[in-house]
Each structure stands twice: as structure tokens, then as C-alpha cells.
Specification:
alpha/beta; 60s Ribosomal Protein L30, Chain: A; Alpha/beta knot; 23% strand; elongated
């Protein structure tokens, strides 16, 4: 049996990283992040890109300790103690702390991808649910990497990880600057930017997919900047009648399915 460490006191200094989870979501954790839920934790333990610092499980979920590598402390607490530590009800009874490590360089990340590769570039996405959903789709359809511009929110935010079903922990990602810098980095690595917009000139049915394809997605409402659309090949998803609004995470799933063949 995997050894675990019992926690009876919410003020135990060993679990300081888990205190007041929601408040510290906003304040930051100095190079660490929170993983919540069994599926993301199993992915993180089995093939995630980030080291685990520790895990905190409710006593009813203690068996999950077997999935966590030796050398990673696993703390176990009764549900009331766990919730007192976190500061809100943790119905899943599963938390862990990951370590960010050094950020990946976008140019180096792209240069290391195979000759035929598919990446996603996010411009101005500030909704954690959408970013998490896109990472989930990127993992499901085999995207090799995700680029995030400076305005796009953190994929290692607790909610984004949860919505991604752990995809944010296994798909490599890197930050770039503004929208046009994003395109420049892609083009320098031989990627063809494919920008999604209701105004797109082509559809996936008429697209001959480039070997190195970059799906470029913008925020809902304003969409991608005109300067990006002018520089990229534009695509649209045909919809019934005059309805032209799909959630950006749903859009990413349709587009990645079309490009992943």
C-alpha cells in the first residue's frame, strides 16, 4: 500500500499550499498551481508535463494515492478537515499541487515539432472555461502544442485545468506577445495560420491542409483582429440560416477534428 500522511489539523504547516484555495487562485502561488479532481490528477501523475509537489485527498478518496508516484507526499484528511483547509466544499475530495517549472520558448517548441504538425494559437481569450475546453479538444485530437498571446488567460488556473479534463497538463504550451507576433512566430517555423471567423473565405471542405497547420482562434464577440485575418488564411464553419455564433471551445473541437486527419 502507498504510504500516506494523516492530517487532523487544518493549520498543519505541511499543507500550507492548500489553504484558502479560492483566494490564492487570484493572488497566485509563486510557481505552483492547484489540480482539482481525479481525472486531472491521474493524468498529471501518469504523463503530465509538470512535477507534483504533493497531493491532499479526503479519507474516502485515499485509494487514489496508489496512482501518485513514490516520493510525492500524499496527505489524507477527513472531509470536514479538507474543506476547512481549502475554505470551501471540495466535493471531489481530490487536490494536488503542481510545479510550473521553466516556461517553454515558443520558437523552440515549434521548431521541435514533426514535419507534419498541428498547433492551436489563442488570441485574446480571457475566459477560463473556453481555454480549458480548447485544451481538452487539443488533447483529444492530437494537437502538438498551443500558443497563447499575452492577453489569453492562464491554462494552469484551477478551473481551466478542471474544464480541460487534464488536457492543460499534457499539451505543451508557450506564451508569445501580441497577435501579430503570434503569427510571426508561427510563420518563422513554417506554419500556415488558419484563422477562424464567420467571415472566413474558405471552409474545411475546400481546404487542402498544410503539413504545418496552425488553428488561430479569437475571443467570442469581437473575434480575431482585422490585422490577423488579413495576414492568415481565413476559414468559416457553415451554419444554418443566418446563425453565425458558436462557442469558441465548440468551434475548436469542430476545426481540430477536421484538421487532425
Amino acid at each position: 500500500m502507498r504510504a500516506t500522511l494523516a492530517i487532523d489539523d487544518p493549520d498543519d504547516p505541511r499543507i500550507a499550499d492548500y489553504r484558502a484555495v479560492r483566494e490564492r487562485d487570484l493572488a497566485g502561488r509563486a510557481g505552483k498551481f492547484v489540480i482539482e479532481g481525479e481525472v486531472p490528477l491521474r493524468l498529471a501523475a501518469a504523463r503530465g508535463r509538470f512535477a507534483l509537489a504533493s497531493a491532499l485527498l479526503s479519507d474516502k478518496r485515499a485509494a487514489l494515492a496508489e496512482a501518485i508516484p513514490e516520493g510525492v507526499p500524499v496527505y489524507v484528511a477527513a472531509q470536514p478537515v479538507l474543506e476547512a483547509i481549502a475554505g470551501f466544499p471540495i466535493h471531489r475530495g481530490v487536490l494536488a499541487i503542481g510545479v510550473r517549472g521553466e516556461a517553454l520558448d515558443a520558437a523552440a517548441l515549434l521548431a521541435g515539432l514533426p514535419a507534419r504538425a498541428l498547433v492551436v494559437a489563442l488570441i485574446g481569450l480571457t475566459n477560463h472555461d473556453n481555454v480549458g475546453g480548447i485544451f481538452r479538444n487539443a488533447a483529444a485530437f492530437g494537437a502538438h502544442a498551443v500558443l497563447l498571446d499575452a492577453q489569453t488567460c492562464d491554462p494552469l488556473y484551477r478551473k481551466a485545468i478542471r474544464v480541460s479534463a487534464g488536457g492543460a497538463l499534457i499539451v505543451p504550451f508557450a506564451r508569445v506577445g501580441g497577435p501579430l507576433e503570434t503569427l510571426a512566430v508561427l510563420e518563422a517555423a513554417g506554419f500556415t495560420p488558419l484563422a477562424l471567423s464567420p467571415r472566413g473565405a474558405d471552409t474545411f471542405a475546400t481546404l487542402a491542409r498544410p503539413d504545418r497547420a496552425a488553428l488561430v482562434l479569437g475571443t467570442e464577440g469581437p473575434g480575431l483582429p482585422d490585422a490577423v485575418l488579413a495576414r492568415a488564411r481565413t476559414l468559416r464553419i457553415p451554419m444554418a440560416g443566418d446563425f453565425d455564433s458558436l462557442n469558441v471551445a465548440v468551434t475548436s473541437g469542430i476545426a481540430l477534428a477536421a484538421l487532425s486527419g
